[in-house]
């Protein structure tokens, strides 16, 4: 089992307890809703236990959540069934979903999605540029990439040290310390036009980038 899957499997059961749905959460859902339409086919990368996926589901045609953690996917399926949400499905994918290493997966056919959401996952990828190319391939022309990423590379030295220590002691997953400018360039290099890049909530410091497949 890959280290990242093991890390997230261990946290699956407790993951939801940490999700606080305050006013900022509602605003995040409103924002993504405004970028989508009610027949959109959406891929949610790194869906975890699907809290966000299941809150987006009522506003789109279909949503497909993928995650490396089998434990998270099991929880996601259970919650979708308990909540009677029928337009969401889930699958466990290889951590290296890039570049083109799952060409035979019929659920992940090239050009089949109107939008890809990737919340708090890009910094966890083994190959960020390769995965962005793969996500670009999965989108229809004009399709949207909607991301939120902690760009730890721009945080101060104290925070970076804390993250490094947490990784060292297994309290945090292995992360890529991306800077905002680097991430924007990688997204552009994968063939997207960056439409918006900003931090909506200074407390979370998540860089929200919306980009379009040209
Ligand atoms: C911090 S959680 C974010 C979950 C959710 N998107 C959210 O914002 O609440 C990161 C998730 O990404 C998953 N993950 C990590 N690397 C991944 C990869 N290469 N492909 C797919 N999922 C991955 C983890 O298993 C974990 O469930």
Description of the molecule:
A hairpin with a 6-residue loop joins strand 6 and strand 7 (206-213). By secondary structure, this protein is α/β, with parallel strands linked by helices. Strands 3-2-1-4-5-7-6 form a 7-stranded mixed sheet, with helices on both faces. It has one domain: Rossmann fold, CATH 3.40.50.150. Residues 99-103 have low confidence and may be disordered. It starts with a helix and ends with a strand. The chain has helices at 3-15, 23-35, 51-56, 70-82, 128-138, 157-168, 180-189; strands at 41-45, 62-67, 88-92, 113-119, 139-150, 192-199, 206-213. The longest helix has 13 residues, at 3-15. The protein has 7 helices and 7 strands, in the order ααβαβαββαβααββ. Helix 1 packs parallel to helix 4 (70-82). The structure holds S-adenosylmethionine. The site of S-adenosylmethionine has 21 residues, from helix 1, helix 3 and strand 2.
Q: In CATH terms, what is the architecture?
A: 3-Layer(aba) Sandwich
**Beta-strand proportion:** 15-25%
Strand ordering within the main sheet: 3-2-1-4-5-7-6
What series of H and E elements makes up the topology?
HHEHEHEEHEHHEE
By DSSP (H or I, 4+ residues per run), the number of helices equals 7
Q: Return residue spans where pLDDT drops below 50 for at least 5 consecutive residues.
A: 99-103
CATH topology: Rossmann fold
- Gross morphology: globular
Give the class from helix and strand content and strand pairing: alpha/beta
Count of distinct structural domains: 1
User: Cofactors and ligands present?
Assistant: S-adenosylmethionine
Spatial gap, N to C terminus: 37 Å
Largest sheet entry: 7 strands, mixed
Strand tally = 7
Which percent range fits the helix content?
A: 25-40%
Write out the CATH superfamily name: Vaccinia Virus protein VP39
Q: According to CATH, what is the class?
A: Alpha Beta
Mean pLDDT: 91
Question: Rg to the nearest angstrom?
Answer: 16 Å
